[in-house]
Amino acid sequence: MTVDKLCARVAELLRTYPPATTDASVFHRAQFDAGLAWVHFPEGLGGLGLARDLQDVVDTELRAVGAPVNPAGHVGIGVGMAAPTILAFGTPEQRSRYLRPLWLGEEVWCQLFSEPGAGSDLAAVATRAVREGGHWVVNGQKVWTSSAHVARFAILLARTDPEVPKHRGLSYFILDMSAPGVEVRPLRQITGEAEFNEVFLTDVRMPDTARLGAVGDGWKVANATLSSERVAIGGDQARRESGMISKVAELWREHPEVRGAAVHDRVMERWVAAEVFRLTGARLRQRLATGAPGFEGAAMKVMFADLAQSISLLELELDPDAALLYDDWALVRPASVDFLSRGPGYRYLRAKGNSIEGGTSEVLRTIVAERVLGLPGEARVDKDVPWKKVPR
Amino acid sequence: MKIPVGSGPVRLSLVESEDEESVRTVVRTLLADRCASDDVAAASDGRHGLSAPLWRSLAVDLGLAGLLVPEEAGGAGAGAREAGTVLEELGSAVAPVPFLTSAVIATSALVHLMSAESADQHAVRDTLAAAASGGSVLTLLLPWSTDPSGPVFTVREEPDGLRGEATPVAGADAGTFLVPALGADGAGLWLVDRAAVQVTPAVALDMTRPLATVRLDGAPARLVVRGPAAEEAVRTGLLTGAGVLASEQVGLAQWCLAETVSYLTVRRQFGRVVGGFQAIKHRLADLHIAVEGARAAARYAAATLADEPDDAPVAVAVAASVCGEVAVRAAEECVQLHGGIGMTWEHPAHLRLKRAVADQVALGTPVRHRARLGGLVGIVPDGECR
Ligand SMILES: Cc1cc2nc3c(=O)[nH]c(=O)nc-3n(C[C@H](O)[C@H](O)[C@H](O)COP(=O)(O)OP(=O)(O)OC[C@H]3O[C@@H](n4cnc5c(N)ncnc54)[C@H](O)[C@@H]3O)c2cc1C
């Protein structure tokens, strides 16, 4: 489909459902059913089977006329991680059951991967799923689970075979967060709020139809999720001077007292870095348009974390009096992260998580070095050892 | 505040097209055959002889001298994207040829004048035709560090001819100088024959791009254009030059990264391949990330110069600011991570280091570009912000 035809389709949607007079949820359902939700998804599942970067065309057209913004965009785990994984590994039933409410934001998703004993070494997860007839029974503890307190479903990585080496004994499931035995407790962060949680799983029963991919293939499925995650984290800043740099630029333009010749170059350095990040993301997306996300997503994510951290630190330095204050330490449990509506202290503190969540920058640098540059792998002491024999 | 155009999602292609890739392959093949590092190093010993025949092959056999010259004026009619691709390869090989100074900067200035009514079209077209055929080499008479918004008049137009001096001028082994000059009648752009000027070669940090002091003592000159178009043409040349110099820097940085990775995958110490140590892996991963960022910036700069000129000043300032620094860092890492061999005259790393450092200053330092960029996007050091 050409860009013209795609724009015509958007125009048709806007004609049938004028945003000014249409309820946002009605508009979004119509957008999904017209295949304009994520154009790279197949027809019938919110897409048109087009190149991924053509979604920008749709979003730009919609933004231009002030159409309502898709609410699912705020909850990155569903759209950014669960959806591509369900698309890649789900059965037709799973795809048609989950993708629509996921995109519409009617059902929020969370990611039950990390555990107290398995963070960077994700393949070491100890949460057990044991088959009982047509069901699986799950026991274990997950941690750092963002949005678990508002989630309807989770993507879950669990150990189904402890007798084989760690990567081979995992399976991947869709967990119903309302099932008996799922307990979610808030974990307070350095920002004061509790965006993430601990999740305790005690004798939770799941049907076998909740499995995504084959038994024992969990690592392969999880890797698809992680590379999508890194693309989602790294790759969606479409406009120039958007994101964190917008705050610094705004501060500079509106507050003459923060300006100084010496700090000007540092502000421009960050401005350039933000623009370079935007262009690198655009180039990556243009390349991805022809295939699946690759390991370059890891590179983008490292770049993003460095950028967010250096910009938010500079923002504090620019406005020293504001830097001494904090907007609110109250323990709230937000449904999503919003860097821009909070104060500079929050932005700085929250940005520290950017180099930890979704794979730490250290681990991602190792991935880039090995998978992109072809440098030798790390020493592995646990590679061929059955999981249950690895000391921990 | 309205941020300049291009502030929506990036629509221009930042991916190499098939045409660009075929240009790349041809240039790369020729350079592999004709521009080995030993030959390049010889330039620093004052043993010339490489650059003239190499340039003839690139300029005439491959037609690169006329790459940016429109077909109607005897060239290939290509744009900044193709020029950027060529420069990635020339930067990778640190080829000592005047492609950037003659076929990009001086040529772009003249091509700009093809649509200027006030310009002497015979002078413009004759000069472009001669340059496109490889018959003559041009250079713009300005200090090589001049940025696209820097001062461009170092020469005066006097009743008895042009007078003044520019130093250090790159590509000063050119046969024809394109000279911006200020006189009683305002700005003008002139053509001056090499025989009419005094050229004193300098000992350059980067001997692969010869520098010289050029003096004009009442030199006879042919007028190309007078008035505002003269300065516009010069600035177009400088902007195009700075925009595609970024690609040269990316090519150079990529060479340094690839060379270092391949050396460290065979070099063993402590019973292990050195490239397997995590401290090294992470440094190289960071360098890769920086190079990919620089590549995207350079491609965007070239794309805007070709297809979205309104956004080119911002795009070029961004690319020039980042690519110069990345190239220097890549070359420094290349020297450091080769150990002792990286410090030798024999190893080709130093050629890249010297070119990278010189390139970072050429056509404006990163700090200058960022200062200029601040003005373009309404973030200025003091006074009113837009
Ligand atoms: C804000 C936030 C939100 C999160 N949300 C979720 C979520 O929704 N779902 C979920 O499953 N997880 C989530 N996480 C967890 C996150 O993925 C893990 O914290 C992360 O993978 C690191 O694991 P860890 O905390 O166990 O640290 P560790 O793995 O113990 O790492 C400790 C330090 O050692 C370094 N390190 C570890 N291994 C290596 C190595 N091989 N080489 C070099 N350095 C190494 C790390 O980089 C780090 O600096 C979230 C984390 C944060 C901060």
Q: How are the elements arranged and paired?
A:
The complex is a heterodimer of chains A (392) and B (386).
Chain A: H1 3-16, H2 24-33, H3 54-64, H4 76-89, H5 92-104, E1 109-112, E2 128-132, E3 135-142, E4 153-159, E5 170-176, E6 182-187, E7 196-207, H6 218-234, H7 244-254, H8 261-288, H9 296-318, H10 320-323, H11 344-352, H12 361-372
Parallel strand pairs in A: 1-4
Antiparallel strand pairs in A: 2-3, 3-7, 4-5, 6-7
Helix pairs in contact in A: 1-3, 4-5, 4-6, 6-9, 7-9, 8-9, 9-11, 9-12
Chain B: H1 18-34, H2 37-42, H3 51-61, H4 80-92, H5 99-113, H6 121-132, E1 138-140, E2 155-158, E3 161-170, E4 176-183, E5 186-193, E6 198-201, E7 211-219, E8 222-226, H7 228-264, E9 268-269, E10 272-273, H8 278-307, H9 312-337, H10 349-361, H11 366-377
Parallel strand pairs in B: 1-4, 2-4
Antiparallel strand pairs in B: 2-3, 3-7, 4-5, 5-8, 6-7, 9-10
Helix pairs in contact in B: 1-4, 4-7, 4-8, 5-6, 5-7, 7-8, 7-9, 7-10, 8-9, 9-10, 9-11
Bound molecules: flavin-adenine dinucleotide (FAD).
Residues 110-111, 113-114, 119-120, 144-146, 196, 353, 356-360, 362-363, 366 of chain A line the site of flavin-adenine dinucleotide (FAD).
What does this entry look like structurally?
The complex is a heterodimer of chains A (392) and B (386). Chain A is 42% helix and 12% strand. Chain A has 392 residues and is α+β, with helices and mostly antiparallel strands. The radius of gyration of chain A is 22 Å and the shape is globular. Chain B is built from eleven helices and ten strands. In chain B, strands 1, 2, 3, 4, 5, 6, 7 and 8 form an eight-stranded mixed sheet that branches. Chain B has a two-stranded antiparallel ribbon with strand order 9-10. In chain B, strand 2 and strand 3 form a beta hairpin. In chain B, helix 1 (18-34) packs parallel to helix 4 and helix 7 packs antiparallel against helix 8. The longest helix of chain B has 37 residues, at 228-264. Classes of the chains: A alpha+beta (392), B alpha+beta (386). The interface between A and B is large, with 50 and 50 residues. Bound molecules: flavin-adenine dinucleotide.
